[in-house]
Design brief:
This protein is an all-alpha fold. It has a domain of about 80 residues. The protein is built from 3 helices and no strands. Helix 1 packs antiparallel against helix 2 and helix 1 runs parallel beside helix 3. The longest helix is centred in the last third of the chain and has 41 residues.
Length: about 150
């Protein structure tokens, strides 16, 4: 028994082959084989790729620059433990930004943040050093005055 086509109707047999009418796309009706020696062209039955053609995948993103990441981490350490490490962070951040411009890697924001936070760490270290010098100077003057009276 013949299967119904997409519209739900059964096709009558064709007088040439006895297998039914040949559709416009050159493919035999569903469930039937083509006549001997006549095979359909390879590929998708419609002649086109489904869903608008072959789609390429996304390009892999560039990796993050390791010097930019190191600059950011060292700058955070400089804020919380040793402010003098900010200079290393500034150096790493500037070199990372140059390398990122040259290679197209990711991480320019990390490098810029490392430079900015590194300069903040250097400034904090300088202020801390000035405070310590002023405090020690005040303490020495205070001790000198108290010992001079004896």
């Amino acid at each position: 028994m013949k299967e119904p086509d997409a519209g739900g109707q059964i096709r009558p047999p064709s007088p040439q082959t006895g297998t039914g009418p040949v559709p416009a796309d050159g493919q035999p009706p569903r469930g039937e084989l083509p006549p001997p020696g006549q095979y359909p062209p390879p590929g998708h039955p419609g002649g086109e790729y489904p869903y608008g053609g072959y789609q390429y995948g996304y390009a892999a993103p560039q990796p993050t620059n390791s010097m930019a990441l190191a600059s950011f981490i060292v700058s955070l350490v400089s804020l919380f433990s040793c402010p003098l490490l900010g200079g290393i962070s500034v150096y790493l951040g500037r070199r990372a930004r140059d390398e990122i411009r040259r290679t197209g890697q990711q991480g320019d924001g990390l490098a810029q943040a490392g430079v900015i936070i590194g300069w903040c760490g250097v400034g904090f270290g300088v202020l801390l050093a000035l405070f310590m010098v002023a405090y020690l100077g005040f303490f020495i003057v205070l001790v000198d005055r108290s010992t001079a009276g004896y």
